[in-house]
Amino acid sequence: MRIRNIDLGNMPVCLAPMEDVTDPAFRLMCKRFGADMVYTEFVSADALIRSIDKTMKKLTINEAERPVAIQIYGRDTETMVEAAKIVEEAKPDILDLNFGCPVKRVAVKGAGAGMLQNIPKMLEITREVVKAVSIPVTVKTRLGWDQEHRIIVELAEQLQDCGIEALTIHGRTRSQMYTGEADWTLIGAVKDNPRMHIPIIGNGDITTPQRAKECFDKYGVDAIMIGRASFGRPWIFKEVKHYLQTGEVLPPLTFEWQLNVLRQEVMDSVNLLDERRGILHVRRHLAASPLFKGIPNFRDTRIKMLRAETVAELFDILDYIEQNFQ
């Protein structure tokens, strides 16, 4: 699969953009485990043009994580164009437009998935951003606003006509948020449309290597994107890539090995930020790790993990888990 001159190889697996998750440290870790392309946290166009320091820091890219896409969201054409030019100066490989974020604070203001209620504005923003920058522009969106307005097959053609060079589709409507199951049939319908010639990336509920392979085989997508399944499990890219390349399940990764990866994730977060902010950032991802699923009476330990405030405290908890639950 190629996006302009960016060759992502056969059956690429991408890390989805996720707020407060896909910072540089986490992106690099997922890259080391096999992610073929990574995306930044989504970036507010309004905050970018006002040079808000916290937002500007989200444009930081490490050469080792390439190819990398910076994703922006907003509701105003002029603002999105200006923000796109700022992003281009950060030299990402791709600029991605977020028309899929379902969270209330974004969507009800008309940005993110809110754009699914104003298709003319979505298309206007897309056309103008494509014209404003020289790097490839891609889009990430959903099936539609709700079950009665699943418009993605027609919308995909319209976005392609605006000049985008790839389209990522999350297999839910905005009204579903992250509930229910992702519906890949319409993603497959977009890919099967003979008028579509840009790469189609499928997203939603890819939690196992077997499901990743099924999505390629059954729906014909050019790439897949993994999001929430990477929480506390960045090695999912290693598992998925191995299965796609060999058809065999990766030999089980030891409990100790996986815990050590989580320890490294803690240190990467702390080194990127500082101890207090790094722990605040990473502890909920660790608490959500499927590594701990099925451990009896784990609730109290999980609560302690969510309340940890120092590296020493968090590592003591991980040491306790290793000694008592593996």
Secondary structure layout plus pairing:
Layout: E1 2-3, E2 6-7, E3 13-15, H1 24-32, E4 37-44, H2 45-49, H3 53-56, E5 68-73, H4 77-89, E6 94-99, H5 104-107, H6 119-132, E7 137-142, H7 152-161, E8 167-170, H8 185-192, E9 200-203, H9 209-219, E10 223-226, H10 236-246, H11 255-272, H12 275-287, H13 299-307, H14 311-325
Parallel strand pairs: 3-4, 3-10, 4-5, 5-6, 6-7, 7-8, 8-9, 9-10
Antiparallel strand pairs: 1-2
Helix pairs in contact: 1-11, 4-6, 7-8, 9-10, 11-12, 11-14, 12-13
Keyword list:
326 residues, alpha/beta, TIM Barrel, Non-ribosomal Peptide Synthetase Peptidyl Carrier Protein, Chain A, 2 domains, two-stranded antiparallel sheet, 44% helix
Describe the protein.
With 326 residues, this protein is of the alpha/beta class. The chain has two domains: 2-246, Aldolase class I (TIM Barrel, Alpha-Beta Barrel); 255-325, Non-ribosomal Peptide Synthetase Peptidyl Carrier Protein, Chain A (Orthogonal Bundle), CATH 1.10.1200. It has 14 helices and ten strands. The protein has helices at residues 24-32, 45-49, 53-56, 77-89, 104-107, 119-132, 152-161, 185-192, 209-219, 236-246, 255-272, 275-287, 299-307, 311-325; strands spanning 2-3, 6-7, 13-15, 37-44, 68-73, 94-99, 137-142, 167-170, 200-203, 223-226. Strands 3-4-5-6-7-8-9-10 form an eight-stranded parallel beta barrel, surrounded by seven helices. Strands 1-2 form a two-stranded antiparallel ribbon. Helix 7 (152-161) links the parallel strand 7 (137-142) and strand 8. Helix 11 (255-272) runs antiparallel to helix 14. It is globular, with a radius of gyration of 20 Å. The mean pLDDT is 94.
